[in-house]
Specification:
Layout lengths: L1 E4 L4 E6 L4 E7 L4 E6 L5 E6 L4 E6 L4 E7 L4 E6 L5 E6 L4 E6 L4 E7 L4 E6 L5 E6 L4 E6 L4 E7 L4 E6 L5 E6 L4 E6 L4 E7 L4 E6 L5 E6 L4 E6 L4 E7 L14
Length: 250
């Protein structure tokens, strides 16, 4: 497990068998997000202040490359095939596309204002970037690296996650306390679901029947039935919940 430590400019590596920290890796200034390649051999860390991406070799837990990108890189996602990493540059309103074989930026794509959340569909054909400054989602065709759709969503959208089949994208809207559900075939919003205050992140069960949304401002988690796109439960948790992950075990 790779954990970003923002104020320490490091990444902690946890052995999940022992739940102990086995390495602390220095990276760039103010690391924000991390994505691990599908094969598990590389971890990509966005460094918001130094405007670069640190590439970690997971076999040695050392930084093997530092890639300059746009201004204030935040969200990062790797394609299912592991050939490209997409980085949202909050300060320059762009997405940098990294060739993971050469660790170089192969193209820079203009998107909306203040892109923050980044995701790639399970099939790898589309990348979705959440633009928090203009309340939209830009859809990128990964074959051409061009924006093929711009979707209006709620206020100050924050993150995007896809159902396991990739047919729906769920976008948390931090400023309007709701979740926009996008049909990825038509790139239109088919539902807007009220949740708690200032939702941050969403995670799906293995079968995709439930979505769990962390509500930073109300100290709750909303449980969404994805068949009806309604909240079927609200769970009280600790203060200011942000991230969520689901252990899909029997």
């Amino acid at each position: 497990m790779y954990v970003v430590n923002q104020t320490g400019d490091t990444v902690s590596v946890i052995d999940t068998a022992t739940n102990g920290v086995i390495a602390v890796i220095p990276v760039g200034a103010l690391p924000y997000d991390v994505a691990v390649s599908p094969g598990g051999t590389r971890a990509y860390v966005t460094n918001q202040v130094s405007n670069d991406v640190s590439v970690i070799d997971t076999a040695t837990n050392t930084v093997i490359a530092t890639i300059p990108v746009g201004v204030e890189p935040v969200g990062v996602a790797v394609t299912p095939g592991g050939t490209r990493a997409y980085v949202a540059n909050f300060g320059s309103n762009t997405v940098s596309v990294i060739d993971t074989a050469t660790n170089t930026v192969v193209t820079t794509i203009p998107v909306g204002t203040q892109p923050i959340g980044m995701g790639v569909t399970p099939g790898g054909t589309r990348a979705y970037v959440v633009n928090s400054g203009d309340n939209t989602v830009s859809v990128i065709d990964t074959a051409t690296n061009t924006v093929i759709a711009t979707i209006p969503v709620g206020t100050n959208p924050w993150e995007v996650a896809f159902t396991p089949g990739g047919t729906r994208a769920y976008v948390t809207n931090f400023g309007s306390d709701n979740v926009s559900v996008i049909d990825t075939a038509t790139n239109t919003v088919i539902a807007t679901i009220p949740v708690g205050e200032t939702p941050i992140l969403v995670a799906f069960t293995l079968g995709g029947t439930r979505a769990y949304v962390t509500n930073f401002g109300s100290n709750t988690v909303s449980v969404i039935n994805t068949a009806t796109n309604t909240v079927e439960a609200t769970l009280g948790v600790g203060d200011a919940p942000s991230h969520v992950a689901i252990a899909n075990v029997p």
